[in-house]
Write a structure and sequence with these properties.
This protein is an alpha/beta fold and 287 residues long. It contains eleven helices and eight strands. It comes from freshwater metagenome.
Length: 287
């Protein structure tokens, strides 16, 4: 088992429907539920956690809450990325002070730095950290890819120990980095190639099955085949939106997304409901 765990759930941030404030009680309850259903740890304040809509105060309060209330044995990986290096340094330093077990640092987005800029950015982040950094490569969101030769160069910096690879075309072992997939549909493939696990969203729902994919490699392909349609169904909309809709259907207090994300509509909810039924998480006669 890798130090941070194999199944790291990119946890949602529950918001109260009345005023869209952070529902801390629901957040803590969700961590406990996920830990009891296969999750080894949690990425807090990532994309699925709607970090772009959190104030810095909310962001850091959630990291601190997760550290204080984490289930026994679980790890907390704090999202600390920004397209402003100064801001990323601030979040990195504060997350370390708050006691996060590791840091998730996304490639700077929108301003799209070149290779030298990426190296300079992460050199500063590595100097500010005193615990493991997980790089996050997701060019479909950031506009910039980290090719594997650049990842290998970044792995030479202190504390840069792993990568969350969300570009399926780049999915490969890189010297000096533990490999996590950022795509649920690539989880089995990542484990098969010797990767340590995934930073996952479907584990909000099918954590026990994903746990079996780690613990029972001889059954991995068969389990993966049964889960691929579920992964696809969650992709009917932005994952923060669809995950909240699914959790609400199961009775968890997930609330609604903050704008610019909107709640799932009737057609999207129908897709998500059917996917939950297919996994035995909802009874068909209640769907």
């Amino acid at each position: 088992m890798p130090a941070l765990g194999a199944i790291l759930t990119a946890v949602i941030t529950p918001f109260r429907e009345a005023d869209l404030s952070v529902d801390e009680d629901a957040f803590v309850a969700l961590l406990a539920h996920l830990a009891a259903n296969g999750s080894d740890g949690f990425v807090v304040c990532g994309t699925t956690g709607e970090a772009p809509t959190l104030t810095d105060e909310e962001h850091l309060d959630l990291i601190g809450l997760a550290v204080r209330e984490k289930p026994a044995g679980a790890t907390i990986i704090a999202g600390v990325g920004s397209n402003d290096t100064r801001h990323a340094l601030h979040l990195t330093e504060r997350a370390c002070e708050l006691g996060a077990d590791a840091l998730l640092s996304v490639t700077p987005y929108y301003n799209r730095p070149n290779r030298r800029g990426i190296l300079a950015h992460y050199r500063e982040i590595s100097r500010a950290a005193d615990r493991p950094i997980v790089l996050y490569n997701i060019p479909q969101r950031t506009g910039t890819d980290l090719p594997n030769d650049l990842l290998a160069e970044l792995a030479q910096f202190d504390h840069i120990d792993a990568v969350k690879q969300a570009n399926s075309a780049n999915l490969a072992q890189v010297d000096g980095l533990e490999l996590y997939t950022g795509n649920d549909e690539d989880f089995a493939r990542t484990l098969d190639m010797g990767g340590v696990g995934g930073i996952l969203v479907a584990s909000h729902f099918v954590g026990p099955q994903m746990r079996r994919m780690v613990d029972e490699p001889e059954q991995r392909a068969a389990i993966d085949a049964t889960l691929q349609p579920f992964f696809a169904a969650l992709g009917v909309g932005p994952l923060a939106m669809t995950t909240k809709a699914g959790l609400n259907l199961l009775g968890h207090a997930a609330g609604v997304p903050r704008l610019p994300l909107v709640p799932a509509d009737a057609a999207e909810i129908a897709v998500i409901r059917e996917a939950l039924v297919s996994q035995g998480l909802l009874m068909k006669d209640t769907a």
